[in-house]
Inverse folding.
C-alpha cells in the first residue's frame, strides 16, 4: 500500500518531467562549411555528388584517350555531357551532379567543355540578337562554334535493403565517354557509395 | 449545505447528469471534420477556401501536421499545381517515415488523455498512395512538358522504386499474397485451441483476409510507368507482381472484377514480346488470353478515373460499467446521430464486439443470468471471474462506480454510388472503365482490422484514467467528504478526453477506375460518362494530345458537382445530366 502511495506521488512528477523534456526542443540554425558533410539521412547529398564527380573525373583523365587525342589533334579534347539518367530510388538533383562533373574537368585543365543543346540554343539566339543590335567590332560570328570530340553520358542506380529500422543503401554511378567520330567507348567509369541508416524503434 | 446532503443529491442524479454531459459531448462528436469540409469545398471548385480551411485547422507543426501536408498536397494535385503538390507530399512522406520511432513521452501522454493527442502517423496504405500521387504529378508534368520530359518521367520512376521498397517491407511482414493456404503444420486440436484463443472481441473468421499485405494496383501503375520509359525488365517484374497479387487474393479482397486481371495479362504479354526471350511464358499467356496476336505497334492511352470522396471515420461511444452481481465489466453502446448512423453503429457493435458468439453466450450464462444471455446482442460483458477481488483491491470497481465513456471508430457501410463509367471518343463509345482500386474498402477493412486493438487500448486507457482519478481522490482526502461529487467530476473530465482518433486523409477518392485504349497519335476529344446508381450521368470532356506510344492520363470525378477548375490533365468541362 505504501509502495502504491509512493508510486502515486511520483506519477505526476514523471509525467511533468516527460512533458517538459518533450517540450525542450527548439529550432536552432547554424552556418556550416559548404564542404562539410551534413548527413541527416541516407539520401544522396551534396557531398556525395562532389566526391563522386571528383573521383570519376580523375579516373577518366587518367585513361590514355587524353594523350592519344593531344598527339593526334594537337589540342585539348572537347567534351559534351549528353545525359545522366537518375535510375535510383531517390530524387537526385542531376544538374548539380553534372555541374560538379564540369567543374572537375575544367579544374584539371586537360579538357574543354562544350555547352549542351539548350544552352547552345540560347547562345545562338543571343548571337542573332547581336547581329541586329551590336556594333560590328563587338559582334560574334555565327558558324564558329567548337564541336565536341567526346560525349559523356551515364546513369545513377541504387539498391535498397531494409529490415526494421535499418536500411542499407547502395548507390552506383556509371559514366561512359564515347568518341563522337568513331563511336568508340574510350572510357568507362564506375563509382559506388554505400550508406547504412539505423533508426531506433523508441525514443523520447 | 451539509456535505452528506450534497453527496446524496449528486448520487441520486448522477446518471441523469452524466447522460446530459455525454449528450453534449456526442453532439460535438458529430461535427464534420475540417478536412471533409475542405474536400467538399473543392468539389464545388472553391480550392482557395478549401486550402485556407486546412491551413487554419491543421498546423504545419502540430500533432496533425501530416494531414496539413496530405490534404494540401491533394488539393494542389487537383488544381494542377503538380510541383507544389509534390513538395507537400514529400513533407508528408518524411513525417510518416519519422514516425517509425515511437515517442515514449507521447505514448505516456496518450495513455492519460487519448489517441488524438499523439502525432498522426497515417495508415499503412497511405504511403503507397503518396508515391502514387507524386508519380501521377510527375507524369502529368511530363505530359505538359515540351523539353525535359524524360527527367520528369525518371522522377515518376523514382517514386515507383520507393513504393516497391515499401511494399517489399509490407510483404516481408505479412507474407503478401503468396501463401493463401492454412498453415499445414497445425493438427485439429491445435486449430480448435487457436480458434478459442482468437481475439477477445471479434467473432471467429470475420477479420480473416482483410489485412493490407501488398498492392496489386500500385505494382500495375508502376509497370505502366516503367513501360512508358522503355524499361521493359522493370515493367515486366511489376506486371508479374501485380498479376500474382490480383490472382491470389487482392481482386477478391477489394472486389475487383476479372477484366482487370485480363488487362494485366495483356500488358505482361506485350512487354515480354517486346523484350524477347520469354517464349514459354508468352505461349502460356496467349493460351490464357485465347489470343494469337503479335505485339501491336499502336499507341496506348491509359485512363485513371479517381471517383468521389473516401469514407469518413466516425466516432462510436460505449458506456463502461461494472456489474457487481455478475462480477463483470459491461459495455453498452450509446447510439447517437441520424437513424442511418445509429443503425451503422449498432451493426458495427454487433459485428465486432457484442456477445453473439456461442463462446460469449456460454460465458454470460456462466457468470450472470439468463437475462444477460438475452442482452448479449446489445452489450459486451467481460467477466472478471477470479480477478474480481483483485479488481476491488486495485480500486477498479470503485473507480467505475459512475461509469466511463469509451470511444472507438466506426464506418458506415460502403454504398454503391457508381453504376459504371464509359469512355467516348468523338461520338462513339469505345470502352467501359472498371474499378481497379477501392479506397473505401481499404479504409473500411483497416478500421475492421484495427477494431480489436482499438477498443482494447481504449478500454485500458479509460480504466487507467478512472483508477488514477480514484487514487487522487483518496490521496487528497476528498474521498471522506466529497466522495460522490469528486467521482462524478472525474467521470466528467475523463469523458471529455475520451475520444477516438478520427483523423484520416479525407481528400482521397472513394475508388479508382481504369481502362486502356488503343489510340492514334494526335489530338483527341475524349468524353467520360459516369453513370450513378441514382440514374444521373456525369459527363466530362477534354481534348488530349497523344505524342508517346504509352500515355497515362488521370482525372478526378466528383459525384455531387463536377469541378470547374481547368488543368491539362484533368477534365474541365463537366456537366450533370
Amino acid at each position: 500500500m505504501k509502495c502504491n502511495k509512493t508510486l502515486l506521488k511520483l506519477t505526476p512528477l514523471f509525467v511533468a518531467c516527460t512533458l517538459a523534456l518533450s517540450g525542450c526542443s527548439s529550432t536552432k540554425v547554424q552556418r556550416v562549411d559548404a564542404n562539410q558533410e551534413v548527413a541527416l539521412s541516407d539520401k544522396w547529398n551534396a557531398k556525395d555528388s562532389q566526391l563522386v564527380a571528383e573521383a570519376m573525373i580523375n579516373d577518366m583523365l587518367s585513361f590514355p584517350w587524353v594523350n592519344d587525342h593531344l598527339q593526334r589533334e594537337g589540342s585539348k579534347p572537347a567534351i559534351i555531357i549528353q545525359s545522366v539518367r537518375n535510375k535510383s530510388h531517390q530524387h537526385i538533383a542531376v544538374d548539380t551532379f553534372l555541374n560538379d562533373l564540369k567543374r572537375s574537368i575544367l579544374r584539371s585543365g586537360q579538357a574543354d567543355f562544350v555547352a549542351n543543346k539548350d544552352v547552345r540554343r540560347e547562345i545562338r539566339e543571343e548571337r542573332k540578337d547581336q547581329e541586329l543590335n551590336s556594333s560590328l567590332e563587338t559582334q560574334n560570328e555565327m558558324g564558329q562554334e567548337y564541336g565536341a570530340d567526346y560525349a559523356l553520358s551515364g546513369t545513377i542506380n541504387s539498391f535498397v535493403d531494409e529490415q526494421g529500422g535499418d536500411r542499407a543503401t547502395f548507390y552506383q554511378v556509371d559514366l561512359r565517354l564515347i568518341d563522337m567520330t568513331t563511336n568508340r567507348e574510350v572510357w568507362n567509369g564506375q563509382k559506388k557509395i554505400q550508406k547504412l541508416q539505423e533508426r531506433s524503434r523508441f525514443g523520447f | 449545505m451539509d456535505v452528506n446532503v450534497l453527496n446524496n443529491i449528486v448520487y441520486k442524479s448522477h446518471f441523469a447528469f452524466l447522460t446530459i454531459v455525454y449528450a453534449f459531448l456526442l453532439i460535438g462528436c458529430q461535427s464534420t471534420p475540417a478536412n471533409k469540409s475542405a474536400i467538399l469545398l473543392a468539389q464545388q471548385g472553391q480550392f482557395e477556401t478549401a486550402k485556407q480551411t486546412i491551413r487554419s485547422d491543421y498546423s504545419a507543426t502540430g500533432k496533425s501536421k501530416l494531414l496539413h501536408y496530405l490534404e494540401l498536397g491533394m488539393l494542389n494535385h487537383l488544381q494542377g499545381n503538380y510541383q507544389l503538390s509534390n513538395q507537400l507530399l514529400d513533407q508528408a512522406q518524411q513525417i510518416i517515415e519519422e514516425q517509425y520511432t515511437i515517442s515514449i513521452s507521447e505514448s505516456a501522454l496518450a495513455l492519460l488523455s487519448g489517441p488524438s493527442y499523439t502525432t498522426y502517423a497515417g495508415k499503412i496504405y497511405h504511403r503507397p498512395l503518396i508515391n502514387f500521387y507524386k508519380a501521377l504529378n510527375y507524369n502529368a508534368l511530363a505530359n505538359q512538358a515540351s523539353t525535359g520530359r524524360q527527367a520528369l518521367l525518371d522522377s515518376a520512376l523514382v517514386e515507383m522504386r520507393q513504393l516497391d521498397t515499401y511494399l517489399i517491407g509490407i510483404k516481408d511482414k505479412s507474407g503478401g499474397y503468396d501463401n493463401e493456404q492454412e498453415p499445414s503444420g497445425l493438427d485439429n486440436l491445435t486449430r480448435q485451441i487457436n480458434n478459442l484463443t482468437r481475439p477477445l472481441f471479434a467473432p471467429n473468421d470475420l477479420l480473416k483476409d482483410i489485412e493490407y499485405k501488398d498492392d496489386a494496383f500500385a505494382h500495375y501503375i508502376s509497370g505502366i510507368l516503367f513501360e512508358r520509359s522503355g524499361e521493359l525488365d522493370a515493367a515486366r517484374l511489376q506486371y508479374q507482381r501485380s498479376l500474382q497479387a490480383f490472382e491470389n487474393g487482392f481482386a477478391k479482397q477489394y472486389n475487383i472484377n476479372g477484366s482487370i486481371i485480363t488487362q494485366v495479362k495483356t500488358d505482361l504479354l506485350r512487354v515480354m514480346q517486346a523484350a524477347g526471350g520469354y517464349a514459354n511464358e508468352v505461349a502460356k499467356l496467349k493460351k490464357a488470353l485465347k489470343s494469337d496476336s503479335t505485339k501491336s505497334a499502336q499507341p496506348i492511352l491509359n485512363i485513371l478515373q479517381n471517383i468521389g470522396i473516401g469514407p469518413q471515420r466516425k466516432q462510436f461511444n460505449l458506456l463502461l460499467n461494472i456489474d457487481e452481481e455478475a462480477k463483470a465489466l459491461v459495455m453498452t453502446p450509446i447510439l447517437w446521430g441520424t437513424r442511418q448512423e445509429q443503425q451503422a453503429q449498432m451493426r458495427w457493435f454487433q459485428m465486432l464486439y457484442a456477445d453473439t458468439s456461442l463462446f460469449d453466450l456460454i460465458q454470460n450464462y456462466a457468470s450472470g443470468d439468463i437475462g444477460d444471455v438475452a442482452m448479449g446482442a446489445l452489450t459486451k460483458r467481460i467477466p472478471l471471474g477470479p480477478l474480481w477481488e483483485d479488481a476491488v483491491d486495485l480500486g477498479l470497481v470503485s473507480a467505475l462506480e459512475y461509469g466511463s465513456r469509451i470511444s472507438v471508430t466506426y464506418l458506415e457501410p460502403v454504398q454503391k454510388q457508381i453504376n459504371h463509367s464509359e469512355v467516348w471518343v468523338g461520338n462513339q463509345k469505345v470502352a467501359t472503365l472498371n474499378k481497379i482500386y477501392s479506397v473505401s474498402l481499404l479504409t473500411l477493412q483497416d478500421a475492421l482490422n484495427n477494431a480489436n486493438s482499438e477498443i482494447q487500448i481504449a478500454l485500458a486507457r479509460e480504466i487507467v484514467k478512472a483508477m488514477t482519478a480514484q487514487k487522487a481522490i483518496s490521496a487528497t482526502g476528498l474521498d471522506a467528504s466529497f466522495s460522490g461529487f469528486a467521482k462524478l467530476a472525474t467521470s466528467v473530465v475523463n469523458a471529455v478526453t475520451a475520444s477516438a482518433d478520427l483523423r484520416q486523409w479525407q481528400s482521397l477518392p472513394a475508388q479508382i477506375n481504369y481502362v486502356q485504349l488503343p489510340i492514334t497519335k494526335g489530338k483527341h476529344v475524349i468524353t467520360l460518362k459516369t453513370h450513378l446508381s441514382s440514374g444521373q450521368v456525369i459527363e466530362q470532356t477534354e481534348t488530349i494530345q497523344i505524342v508517346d506510344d504509352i500515355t497515362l492520363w488521370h482525372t478526378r470525378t466528383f459525384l455531387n458537382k463536377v469541378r470547374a477548375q481547368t488543368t491539362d490533365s484533368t477534365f474541365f468541362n463537366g456537366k450533370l445530366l
